[in-house]
Amino acid sequence: MNxxxxxxxxxxxxxxxxxxxxxxxxxxxxxxxxxxxxAAILSCDALEIEAELYGSLACTGTGHGTxxxxxxxxxxYHPETVDPDAISTALQNLTHQPEVLRLHGTPVSFSYxxxxxxxxxxxxxxxxxxxxxxLRSGSLCIVQQLYYSVGGGFIVQADxxxxxxxxxSADTEEALPFPFTNARQLLDWCEKRAxxxxxxxxxxxxxxxxADTLDAYLRRIWSVMQRTIxxxxxxxxxxxxxxxxxxxxxxxxxxxxxxxLRDPLTALDWVNLWAIATNEExxxxxxxxxxxxxxxxxxxxxxxSYYDRFHxxxxxxxxxxxxxxxxxxxxxxxxxxxxxxAVVGCLGVVGVACSMAAGGLxxxxxxxxxxxxxxxxxxxxxxxxxxxxxxxxLVQIPCIERNAMGATxxxxxxxxxxxxxxxxxxxxxxxxxxxxxxxxxxxxxxxxTSRGGLAVSAVDC
Length: 461
What we know:
Elements: H1 4-7, E1 10-12, H2 16-34, E2 47-54, H3 55-64, H4 66-74, H5 87-96, E3 99-103, E4 106-109, E5 116-119, E6 129-137, E7 140-151, E8 154-159, E9 162-168, H6 183-193, H7 197-206, H8 211-232, H9 249-257, H10 266-283, E10 287-289, H11 299-310, H12 316-336, H13 341-344, H14 350-364, H15 369-381, H16 399-418, H17 428-441, H18 454-457
Parallel strand pairs: 2-4, 2-5
Antiparallel strand pairs: 1-10, 2-6, 3-4, 6-7, 7-8, 8-9
Helix pairs in contact: 2-4, 7-12, 8-10, 8-12, 9-10, 10-11, 10-16, 11-14, 11-16, 12-14, 14-15, 14-16, 15-16, 15-17
């Protein structure tokens, strides 16, 4: 089981796989260089870093801000702490002063943006989101590293001499008191212990973190989600990237504040607003929480806000119930399928977030473990086949509205499951296996390349 600290990470937009992951990879390469033996650069007069992007990163990296993320990582910034308002200045300074660090007194430069090569049409063997970093002195390559951004901000490092051998895992493998690799095992633990899914997840988390640390983190990620929504509801103008997509959340917010709640479906209008506000912030490179990815960052905050406003004020007990249930569900998808749009299309992004949100909401509303599992299954079942086809490689169309649809679908899935007994034909394990096969069968052009679907049908690319 992945920790809640891994599934829900604080970062910046617009993409966990194309922005957060590459920034972390670049920062890791910088750290590798800082540990380099002085003898390796003893006779070098000039040192320069070059980066190469492959697969989906090469196809949609510009629209997703991958080039900017790599530059920031090489400068020593990290996605969870970088100030979004300081990014433009940092990058502008880099264009005038290309030095990113010094190795034993020797300056290391990075030519931004020319130092990034987009190897379109080429793939590295392990994943579509591949990166190669090199430290060079003229024609001599002193050290190189391969990294893969595998979704949700997770990265893996591969041996550059044998790109098929992973030498560092994206997940922390630890012995847990209640290990599970599928939903059936998780439910069996719940039955043996006579407890909820969230309680099993809590006990596993407690083997790694103390209670106060866990509760503080749950409050923190919920607070960041709230601040993202608040900021998104008060920003106007066009989203960056050239598509001239106007921000809508501020206008929707004003309309809803002036409208009485006489129509019961107005609650869904608020859900749409919260999801759109979050993803407009993500699209503009603002502060968000991966949930479990940036592309689906609006679904869980919108569902939590729905509960907070229309059911019960969110306290730490509800936050535990939701986030720990959602973490357990998200871990199953990450282990047994994928949360990367470049691997399985948007069913691994919006589909997984919808499933997590549905299960989490069912838990907060008092559902049994069987009902929670059913809610999560429904949330994915009706996203199967969802392609990832962002126009111009920007996380805007159809991504922003897709989060609103995912949030309302998650609420419907939870409510439908709670009206039943929990018995259902298709299990969560079966739908996860189906999701993986569906994603593998999907043509590559529909998996975050901007070479299929809306990306080519709606505009002349």
